[in-house]
Amino acid sequence: MFKKLGMQIVFITVVAIVVVVAVMLTVTLVSFRNYNDSILMERAEVGMEVLEDTINDEIISLDDDFYILTEDEAFTQAIIDKNNEALHDSFIDEFGGSQDNFMVVADQSGAILYNTQSYPLKSYDYSPVARGTKISGIVQSDGELVAMVADRIDVNGMNYVVCCGFSMEATEWMNNVKKLVGCDVTVFNNNIRYSSTFGSTVIGTPMGDDIKKIVIDGKSAYNGQATINGSPFYVAYEPMYDVNNNLVGAWFAGSDASEANNEFTSVTMIAILIGVIGAAGIAVFIFIFCQTRVTTPLKHAEEYAHEMLAGQLATTNVTYKFHEDEVGNFVEVLRSAKHGMNDVVGDSSRILAAMASGDFTETPNVKYPGVFEDIEKNILKIEDDLGITLSNMNTSSDEVLTGSNQMAEGSQALADGTTRQA
């Protein structure tokens, strides 16, 4: 794919960075998602606990208010006088005017003597209370769910039954739970939504069949995920029991995951963007680093090698300043080798040129390193041997010349003697 070493390094580095960044992003996002999911699930579970604790606190508060009411002389006198208006006034003074609150007064037989208009349990049997069994908790009757306190009181030697409570259709206390824990809550009457912070549109709708099998039919808690009104939720369900420990419905608390999912998507996009920018920045840095520290020096090293291979040792060197690292030092050594070879070859050429012109007195002007020492020795030896040989040849020439002269002189003398004889 890439023939240049620098590009190969850049490619491998970028791939490694991308893999590392992808793994880190995946691990980080998965950890964040799991943590976010655990927080939402924990919020739902906490909402469930707060919901149950709140209703228990409401019942305790109801019990206290009941005691104060039944100890009030005006209230007991209203019972004696059978003054419904006075009974109503006492009830309003103690419990307020909410339509969700109710009160009922019955005689010893359980027959109702007085009840508020908001009283929902028209057919509830108070005879056990008339016999001395106090009721304090959740009651299901006439298709309604209420939290109430009912007890027998003695008024001038006569036993009466007094019951005070509130309908669990009331949403004020549930809205307080939602504000406190940040999740929606619901009360189920059997498997039907009876009261909910989701609003009136869900009231009367049934619980999902899968959840019903676990919570209502199986009498077990359920924690997990569910879709409510088209939105994803982390939910907690628990069976709800009345004062007689009979299953009468269920508690629900749920954390809406829509916002968290949107935030997670935003965080994911930001993380990916940061990862891409970071990887790109590192890739650019690696590219520039490789160009200056690897690619460019090796390019010049290749040029020096080709010049030496072609015998072009005298070419002008580049002015590029190499870094003091392994690659830079290698190129500097290669450049120095080229200079050294050029010096040796140039000096050898100078001596040989002098010898060619008959000058055997020239000597090396540069140091011949390593194996070039043999060249230096051989040049000097050749120079000495040629010098001796040529000197001998000059001597021989002189001797031949002298002999020739002598022969010429002898010939001339012989010729002169012949002439005289003639």
Brief rundown of the structure:
This protein has 422 residues and is of the alpha+beta class. 58% of the residues lie in helices and 18% in strands.
Task: Write up this protein.
- It is a single chain.
- The protein is an alpha+beta fold.
- Helix content is 58%, strand content 18%.
- The protein has helices at 5-70, 73-81, 84-95, 127-130, 172-181, 209-217, 258-309, 326-356, 372-421, and strands at residues 101-106, 112-115, 135-141, 144-155, 158-167, 184-189, 192-196, 222-228, 231-241, 247-256.
- Helix 1 (5-70) runs antiparallel to helix 3, helix 2 packs antiparallel against helix 3 and helix 7 (258-309) packs parallel to helix 8 (326-356).
Helix content: 55-70%
Distance between the amino and carboxyl termini: 107 Å
Q: Estimate what percentage of residues fall within beta strands.
A: 15-25%
The profile of the biggest β sheet is: 5 strands, antiparallel
Mind telling me the C-alpha Rg?
57 Å
Q: Which stretches are low in confidence, meaning pLDDT under 50 for 5 or more residues running?
A: none
Structural class: alpha+beta
Q: Secondary-structure element order, as H and E?
A: HHHEEHEEEHEEHEEEHHH
Across the major sheet, the strand order is 2-1-5-4-3
Number of helices: 9
Apparent shape: rod-shaped
Number of strands: 10
Task: Explain the layout of strands and helices.
Elements: H1 5-70, H2 73-81, H3 84-95, E1 101-106, E2 112-115, H4 127-130, E3 135-141, E4 144-155, E5 158-167, H5 172-181, E6 184-189, E7 192-196, H6 209-217, E8 222-228, E9 231-241, E10 247-256, H7 258-309, H8 326-356, H9 372-421
Antiparallel strand pairs: 1-2, 1-5, 3-4, 4-5, 6-7, 6-10, 8-9, 9-10
